[in-house]
Amino acid sequence: MVSLWDQLHAFAVTALGGVAMGVLFDCLRVVRRWTPRRALLPWMLDLLYWAVVAPLMAGLLFFANWGELRLYVLLGIGTGLALYFAFVSGPVLAALWAVSRGMVALAA
């Protein structure tokens, strides 16, 4: 039986993983803003996102609770994502868009 402390640790680690997924998704959103919609690049960026996120979350899962996929782990990921998008995503996305606009202005 897994102790409550181990479950809380796994929940916290996977919640932080959910936040990391949200940050990476916001970075993807900024990059996709500058790409044409009908091109192949957005599809490639989606594949790249999942190629980065899947090993990241697998590594966090192994760190958190030896790779056991439990309900509290899924709730941790969902909670991290929900908290990130509810409270942090707006300012982070605005900052990323400002930086990207600045980089485009410097390049022009």
Structure description:
With 108 residues, the protein is mainly α. Helices cover 85% and strands 0% of the residues. The protein is built from 3 helices and no strands. Helix 1 packs antiparallel against helix 2 and helix 1 runs parallel beside helix 3. The longest helix has 37 residues. It is elongated and about 60 Å long. The chain starts with a helix and ends with a helix. The mean pLDDT is 93.
The biggest beta sheet reads: none
Classify the oligomer.
single chain
User: Percentage of helical residues?
Assistant: over 70%
How far the N terminus sits from the C terminus, by CA atoms, comes to 60 Å
Overall strand count: 0
Count of helical stretches: 3
* Beta-strand share of residues: under 5%
**Coarse morphology:** elongated
Main structural class? mainly alpha
Order of helices and strands: HHH
Low-confidence stretches: none
Mean pLDDT: 93
The whole-angstrom Rg is 17 Å
Q: Which terms would index this structure?
A:
single chain, 108 residues, mainly alpha
Short description:
With 108 residues, this protein is mainly alpha-helical. It is built from 3 helices and no strands. It has helices at 4-33, 41-65, 71-107.
Helix and strand arrangement:
Elements: H1 4-33, H2 41-65, H3 71-107
Helix pairs in contact: 1-2, 1-3
